[in-house]
Design goal:
The structure is a single chain. The protein is mostly helical. The protein has one domain: Growth Hormone, Chain: A, CATH 1.20.1250. 82% of the residues lie in helices and 0% in strands. It is built from 18 helices and no strands. The longest helix is centred in the middle third of the chain and has 30 residues.
Amino acid sequence: MHCQTFSKVISSLLFLAGLFFLNFTSRVIFSPLLPIIEGEFGLGHAEAGSFFLLISGGYFFSILSSGFVSARINHKNTIALSTIASGITLIALSYCSTLFWMRIGLFCLGLSAGLYLPSGLASIKRLVEPAYLARGMAVHELAPNLGYIAAPVLADLMIISSSWQQGLMWLGICMAGAGLVYGIAGRGSHERGKSLDILSAQNILSRPEFWLLVLLFSLAICSSLGVYAMLPLFLVSEQGMTPERASHFLAFSRIAALMMPLLAGWYGDRVGNRTIMAFVLLIAGLCTVLLGLVSSFSWLVLLVILQPVFAVCFFPSGFAVLSALGVEGEGALAVSLCIPAAFLLGGGVFPVLIGLIGDHASIGVGFMVAGTAMMAGATLSFFVSFVKK
């Protein structure tokens, strides 16, 4: 499959974005459900935050080994396998009645979901002309932003209509069905992935900019997913909201960020991806620090809306830079090496850290620590962007 003009591949990009939406929603749905699950199982904030560490742990091992799978069954079939397996895991999670099996299921969900991303990005890179790569990534990044909005709404519907367990079951059925349709009728890359081999890995790992990207992606994932994961607990336990109101507030806060990746992708193509990455990390970090400081409800509303508006702008440019790292064919490998560590840190370790600080001080203080780290990373990124374009 050869690269084509952007308008001719938009339908294929939207199909991939739809699968990514289900993939992402299946993982973040536990954020708005966390206050309820925390109460049902009698958990502390750090234990509740560990749910995301378990998902991230499975994601870490899966995405790191995704090349071995796609090298044997090609990128399209890997995407279908990931989607179907994730759906089946959600169905299994709906039957978990003990904390032990819940943790096992969450780890398996990360294992299933992690297969998608390298193959999805490799398919986009194959479909879209290099000059429009950031815009193609931006279309794909609409999916997690929709997922951020949909997850609280779905969680609320689950609780109102039946239970969160039955809601997970129906989400799993939809996801498995979508993966089956894509495997049969979807359009994707039939190229095989590249298994993780020592020489190719050494070529990627020897590049200083790769390690910078690991750091920046970790902080960017923390600014979006890490903060999002712990925000319902913050709103319920420290701001006095009910779980239902916190879910509505969480969904509303992400609406303004929905179309921002498209704008960020366009600016990334024009002014430089590295500059965009540094700028959005700096502003998102500042908003995260202020989120933990303010006491006024009106300021809280403003910051909860502004923080994700900037945070989501990192990823179109970030993935464009990461996918172009290395020689031809090594972009997916760079993703497979960078994203597992970044997701484990930003989407797993940081929520536990914020929760741990919340158990001993407050979740607001945890947000301040995380935001300070983002701003420090942005400063480093600004420096490097002037040295190496």
